[in-house]
Amino acid sequence: MSQEMFEKGLEIRREVVGAEYVDRSLAQADDFSRDFQHLVTEYCWGAAWGRDALTRRDRSLLNLVMLGALNRSHEFKLHLRGALRNGCTKDEIQDTLIQLAIYAGIPAGVEAFRLAREVFDAVEAEEGGAA
Amino acid sequence: MSQEMFEKGLEIRREVVGAEYVDRSLAQADDFSRDFQHLVTEYCWGAAWGRDALTRRDRSLLNLVMLGALNRSHEFKLHLRGALRNGCTKDEIQDTLIQLAIYAGIPAGVEAFRLAREVFDAVEAEEGGAA
Amino acid sequence: MSQEMFEKGLEIRREVVGAEYVDRSLAQADDFSRDFQHLVTEYCWGAAWGRDALTRRDRSLLNLVMLGALNRSHEFKLHLRGALRNGCTKDEIQDTLIQLAIYAGIPAGVEAFRLAREVFDAVEAEEGGAA
Amino acid sequence: MSQEMFEKGLEIRREVVGAEYVDRSLAQADDFSRDFQHLVTEYCWGAAWGRDALTRRDRSLLNLVMLGALNRSHEFKLHLRGALRNGCTKDEIQDTLIQLAIYAGIPAGVEAFRLAREVFDAVEAEEGGAA
Amino acid sequence: MSQEMFEKGLEIRREVVGAEYVDRSLAQADDFSRDFQHLVTEYCWGAAWGRDALTRRDRSLLNLVMLGALNRSHEFKLHLRGALRNGCTKDEIQDTLIQLAIYAGIPAGVEAFRLAREVFDAVEAEEGGAA
Amino acid sequence: MSQEMFEKGLEIRREVVGAEYVDRSLAQADDFSRDFQHLVTEYCWGAAWGRDALTRRDRSLLNLVMLGALNRSHEFKLHLRGALRNGCTKDEIQDTLIQLAIYAGIPAGVEAFRLAREVFDAVEAEEGGAA
Asked: Residue limits of the Carboxymuconolactone decarboxylase-like domain (chains A, B, C, D, E, F) (predicted)?
């Protein structure tokens, strides 16, 4: 393992997905899941997200259409929150999900809009609750 | 059909995919394929690409990861040329395909890099030939 | 948008999916989801379902195998109810799901039969409750 | 193996895919592929296609959307010829592929229309040559 | 149907998935699902699992990556329990899921590790409760 | 990058896929593809294939079903040669592809058996030519 790449990935991952979530994932890792958690942090977040030619906003939008097309609802919702953290506007997300619906099919779009509403409602409730 | 949306889609489609290719697709359309060609133009290029909240460069990058994840090689190559036309740099495309490889799997990435090389070689040959 | 195609799609959508569900979807639409709801109604229900060469019964069966192969459970259940509304018999649905299991794999079939049982049970309960 | 189911499947398979193709597939089968050829004949063509509640025309249309959604081009073309043999009209196939494009995404539709044109052209050439 | 292959499949299915689960599935089968239950038992468990060149441990690992790649969570969990019954160690399963994550993409891996934890926790609780 | 993991991955990759192919891939890498080639070598071949709990024979069989399910024909053929290099017998590969056909669907199996025949024929021709 490259410690440097891991550290870089850890920093990005905490900023995008939320420090609390990431720290809990790593803390809860046991002998079965620890290597995978490290792999994700180093390669996915360090080696891919850590590259320079795209912004985090770009990567968030790419992830939304990939996770929508691949039908991974749990990760889709996590990355929709990440997209908001990375500064994507609701209008940009709307256009992104319509692009998804056309290219990956209407059912992928229907699912994505349903999940997005769940996330927006939850985020609003949290922000309201925190006020 | 909305004639207005069709016209809007036709203009965008010709600019992104290339006027020659699009005009040939529409001219060659027969009773079997004509309605579909019109649907693609109006719905995909008008109603999706014609929206305002993302740039064409953004949409090109989204399409590359979707077409790579969905394993549609022919369309991938067409849209890689479109990405170049829309001003995406090679560095941006490289980062996009690495993001694809991590999220959709290494074989999706291997295929995408192979197809990209084919397109780059063909484009270079055409530009050389045109000089 | 073509108002005519939207109206045609709306009528078909209400008849197949259920007027209550569709009216609620459209009424609940906000700035984020309204354009997508209109797109689905116009293109999916107007431009595709509104064509003449297949019956609604045919389209329901096609949708069941597509939604099963694409692994979209929520939409699968919605369209299974639509299939019943469109006059598909249980025997036809059974043969359709066995065809799905062979071509898309046994796990797709297992999931489809499980979801079908949920829908049949719910429909029976509703009809019992309405008696 | 059930000899009876195998015989039933063999008959249907020869009628739908063409006797020449099927006989060659079975004759060319070696120790590596023989069991699989028998499994396909018995299980896919006997146990699924041999059922009563759907017509062959119905099954052909189901297969076109499944093979299109699953992105299996070789089998798609084989079953498009089967669809013609089973009496599906070009209009029915057109509506089927448009339904596919909406639910499985525009690139699935573009690919399906391209493959269909190849098959139609080949069939016409053969019929012309046989005249 | 081949009664012999059905019997062979039934025995293997009961040993791998658990006799209680299988007996309940078959007992609950009604006119809609009975043929499918028999098809699964005969072909999937008899004609595939009943072959000699791979061990049950091998087949369990193959199934985990296929079900993970195909995104079938319910079946994945069932077969993870089967893998434990077939003698797969946690270390072997860990390596299998990491192989899945690389080839089918990080989201497939994240989901698989999450489901595995659910299964391990449930198995531990059952064993604790049975002590 | 971890130089140690890269070296480990490079050694395994050359042994499984063939030194000539790998050396050519790395030698031909340009500014666009070099980082990806390194990522594949380090991450896929070092961090996944380099783990201890599964044998190379196990991993080859896992890859065949994943690449078959994911519909990646080019990589499937490459890894079928790798499977032979890793000591998988034809009987094991046959059982593996039948397992694939049942779980990922008959068309995935048909395609896999067709590609396998191509590889076996090519390997035989090479060995004949080398005699």
From this structure: 35-118
